[in-house]
Amino acid sequence: MNNINQPSHEGAPAQSFLLRAVLLLSGDMSLCQEWMKRQAAVIQLLDWILRGVTQVMFVNNPLSGLLITAGLFLQNPWWALNGLLGTFVSTVSAILLRQNREAISAGLYGYNGTLVGILMAVFSANGSWYWWLLLPNVFMSMLCPVVSSALSSVANRWDLPVFTLPFNILVCIHIAATGANHPYFPEVNIQPNNHPHLLNESVDILSISQLFLSVPVGVGQVYGCDSPWTGGLILLALLLSSPTICFHAMVGSAAGMLSGLALAAPHKDIYSGLWGYNSALSCIAVGGVFYVLTWQTHLLALTCALFCAYMTSAISKLMSVLALPACTWPFCLSTLIFLLISSETPAICRLPLSVVSYPEENRRYQRQLKASEKAQQSQLSSSQEEAPLKEKECQIPSWSGSRTAVNLYE
After folding, report:
1. Over the stretch 191-201, which tens digit does the pLDDT of each residue have?
2. pLDDT at position 1, please?
3. In whole angstroms, what is the distance from residue 117 CA to residue 90 CA?
């Protein structure tokens, strides 16, 4: 009996140690963030850059940032270099502009620079290792905190985030200013997206394996990457920080893929993940990041992902007429619409921006808030019940005292 029970007692400390290690490395790694405040400025800046890389996916975890950076280098080292440079320049510019230090340390002033750097390299017609591209990359990344601060002053009136709107604005400005025939910074030639619905692209010739791969590829396309290995590393990084975010990223990408099939989109666009990345971002944002996670918000997130896919089809056609990419305009517009809805359902609760964190932490915050509200209500009710008793207690000594006084004078 003692020999049988002994391994369980020895295994308990190992399990608790493993659980503590997982909790230490998951979520937003708040303990690491507190430890970083006591380190040198260079080490802090590295932590902020890695958090900025992950904030593209609403994640605030430097270890996840390492995994995503590895995936970017696996896809294309030149793209990864431009993305890290954009994150660095955008973060340093925010420091020089004296933006909120907590927001900078959380990577909120770096993620737009990440996308600006990567997508400027993706849309460049000169291919990889065209070093002159670093000049407009630095300039546009430097403007990211400027545009973010300007948009925040407007969006804060409705307590809304700016999402990737600075990235969309700056990249579209750069592409519109240069174009396909620019002598120094030519862009890829974006043709009007008026694909005919070909009859030969029927359900019979669909590649089921490529459809399954389009889910992680759609997640990778958030960073402009079409490699399933890169998408798999990004999903692993999301799983490390928040399983809920990882789940909604896959659900949103799958919803975008199915919407592309329903709208008879070209199969190559579906396989390459172009129908999944906007829907993945929308599903993550609504499914537990800015709303408290409930089954109602699950359905709301899925609805937003499907709506975002339709928005992707419409905006990509409109933008292609101007020879501009759709970028993440569909995600921004559709998600802002869903964040502005009003509902009397208690289960659909949008959090204030000041307390937004990863979904699991958001649920803990809501439980603590409800517990404190119940405690306050119970204290209020108990104080109301005690008030008549206190009045009686005050009246009894007063009445008995007067009665005693009367007896004495008698």
Report:
1. 887 655 554 44
2. 38
3. 10
The terminus-to-terminus CA distance of the chain in angstroms comes to 84
Q: In degrees, to the nearest 5, what angle opens at C-alpha 279 toward C-alphas 199 and 148?
A: 135
Q: Which amino acid belongs to residue 327?
A: C
> If pLDDT is split at 50, 70 and 90, which confidence band does 186 have?
very high
Token readout for 409 is 């004078």
Q: What are the beta bridge partners of residue 291?
A: 350
Q: CB of 255 within 8 A of CB of 279? A: yes
CB 48 within 8 A of CB 10: no
The Cα 92–Cα 101 span in angstroms is 11
CB-CB neighbours of 84 under 10 Å: 22
Torsion of CA 351, 352, 358, 359, to 10 degrees: 0
Q: What does pTM read for this prediction? A: 0.86
> In whole angstroms, what is the distance from residue 223 CA to residue 57 CA?
10
Q: Count Cβ atoms within 10 A of the Cβ of residue 175 and give its class: 0-12 exposed, 13-18 middle, 19 or more buried.
A: buried
Determine the 3-state secondary structure of 159 from DSSP: coil
Q: What is the pLDDT of residues 70-84, one digit of tens each?
A: 999 999 999 999 999
Distance, in Å, from the CA atom of 85 to the CA atom of 49, rounded to the nearest integer, reads 9
Q: What is the pLDDT of residue 333?
A: 97
- What tens digit of pLDDT does each residue of 219-231 get? 999 999 999 999 9
Q: Calculate mean pLDDT across residues 29-58.
A: 91
- Going by the DSSP 8-state scheme, the letter that residue 351 receives in this structure is P
* Range list of β-strands (E), 216-344: none
Alpha helices (H) in 242-358, listed in sequence order: 243-262, 267-271, 277-284, 295-321, 329-339
